[in-house]
Fold this sequence. Notes:
The complex is a heterodimer of chains A (251) and B (435). By secondary structure, chain A is an alpha/beta fold. Chain A has helices at residues 42-50, 74-79, 97-112, 119-133, 150-164, 180-192, 209-212, 233-241, 244-248; strands at residues 2-11, 17-26, 31-35, 55-64, 67-68, 82-85, 92-96, 143-144, 168-172, 199-204, 217-222, 225-230. Chain B has helices at residues 14-26, 34-47, 62-65, 82-89, 140-148, 381-389, 394-410, 416-434, and strands at 99-103, 106-107, 120-124, 153-157, 167-173, 179-189, 194-203, 209-219, 224-232, 237-247, 252-260, 263-273, 279-288, 293-302, 308-317, 322-331, 339-348, 354-363, 369-377. The radius of gyration of chain B is 21 Å and the shape is globular. The chains are: A alpha/beta (251), B alpha/beta (435). The A-B interface holds A 50-53, 73-75, 77-79, 83-84, 86, 89-90, 92-95, 100-101, 103-105, 107-108, 111, 143, 160, 164 and B 381-383, 385-394, 396-397, 400-401, 403-408, 411.
Amino acid sequence: MLEIKNLHVKLADEEKVILDGLTLSVPKGEVHAIMGPNGSGKSTLAYVLAGRPGYEVTDGDILWNGESVLEMAPDERAAAGIFLAFQYPMEIPGVAGLTFLRTAVNAVAKKRGTKELTTPEFMKLVKAKGAELNIDVEMLKRPVNVGFSGGEKKRSEILQMALLAPSLCVLDETDSGLDIDALKVVSDGVNALRSKDRAMLVITHYQRLLNHIVPDRVHVLAHGHIQKSGGKELALELEKSGYAEYKSKAA
Amino acid sequence: MSMTPATPTQLKTKAEAAYAEQFESALAGLPGAADARRAAFGRFTAQGLPHRRLEEWKYTDLRAAVKEALPPAPAAKAVVAANEVTAALGPLAVIDGPRLVFIDGHFSAEHSVASAIAGLSIATLANAAGASAPAGDVPATVALNHAFASDGAVVEVMAGAKPTGSLVIVFLSTAVRPATITTRNIIIVGADAAASVVEIHAQIGTASTHTNTSTKLQIGDRAVVDHAKVIIGASGAIHLANWDVSIGIDALYRPAQLTPSCGLARHDVNVTLNGRNGKLDFSGIALGRGSDHIDTTMVIHHVAPGCESRELFKTILDGNARAVFQGKVIVDKDAQKTDGKQMAKALMLSPNAEFDSKPELEIYADDVACGHGSTCAEIDPDLIFYCRSRGIPEAQARALLLESFVGDAIDMIDRPDIRRAFTEIAQAWLTHKSA
């Protein structure tokens, strides 16, 4: 279970407060959506969960399976099962996708105390996961994300997610830059990874992603904290009324 | 002023004066015409060691760096075992093809593997006819090379010949006392031929060495030449290298250099595109830490029209290391439709490292496309975070990113065995870094 308690976050080198008392729980087996207007702190929440440098938690805590992750390095969080699918996946020229992924999978295996994979074992796993998710693994022969289309980058993120077998998936604006076909492939991939042992937090500005990845709960984030929570119908309400109600609260 | 002939008035330092003495006593034992060597040494005395007031040597003051003229290395007395040579070559030992080994500047038949190969004529400077020091003005370091060269490879690839594998030329230093090793190679590749040449400078001796090496390479029309150069296992030394290359009509030249920590290194790379539609694809990697100083100074001369030149130069610097990249592209009036691009990128791992990048374009033709770029940065923290978010620990993430940084320069190498060896040598350097 993910428990975020009264989380206060500011930028490390500025006074600007971004998250201002955010409280949220996501039990295993559930998919929760975070929706909110631009600038509400959605991406900050994703980054803080993954441990990106540059943010300072001034109050509150993040617990994963009952343990605080705040003192954990990003790679330790990954080993603990936390995975962030980036809104803008990074390009790494000169490193083949397969090399990158094998390094990651084995680094995580080492920390989790499971067996590291040989190259043939790893290739077998990649092919199996690719087939499961309907993702062509050929792209992994190219340098990580270099020259990939928006759809390819997101597919590559989902494949990485499947290979690292996380127990908490955070998807940051996974729908951005996707056409409807790519959206479907990516959503099917995410749905295939839904399981009773896995919690998912889907961050999005638009309701359309939630037609494909149907959430158990929807939370509206604005002004740095959760303004309203509800079932999946809340997303449809927002689609009709927009975020005006939450924006006006700021004024 | 630097080219004024005659009188040795330029010899000012102790080292320069010592070279004059050493030359007189060494001359009798050196191959080729003595007069030609005297003329070459005269060209050196007229200039002296290059210093920072000369534009091309602004960042590498050899007059200051060469505090002492180390005596010419004697022919190795100690027996060198085959496995010592293999060990010194490290990942390069597996490169396939005929091998010429020079130990302390002298040909070693014992360690060379060069049975008769169709289309390939192999000799050494010490026994080749016509390998005397050439006439004509040359810079001081080259003049010194011509005066002192004790041996080197003299190779001809016959027209149309395409020998398999690479011609591997190994210069091994075994010196246990400080010494200077001077070698000179002459490589001629005939029309329509295809050849790969690998120059390796390796060290098993413990003494600090000064190396002065030169390679003259003439590439015939429509020939394809891969030319790799790597320094391995050297430390605290001075390495001076000069390449003088001419490219014929429709010919393709792909040089690749890898210079991991080796004290002071200066590579002068002079390439002349003499024939229409010739092509140059240069990739270079400099890896420095400690007080390493790695200077690569190129002059790309477009004489003929329609030629293409590409230079990609990657540098990683740590500690107080310094690297220099000077890339001058000259486009003659008749070299219309020249397409020249140059890129020099450096990653700085320490605030005390220094990268001096100086591109220069001298264009006399009016219909050309020439460009250059240079960047100097730290490792992108966002990329480190991306790797770490996938479970890769920080040190490993840094190593991976550094590897990726030099990876695209290595990817330009056509031969897989050379590419693998370069990758391993670069990785070994990087691992030492992140350990």
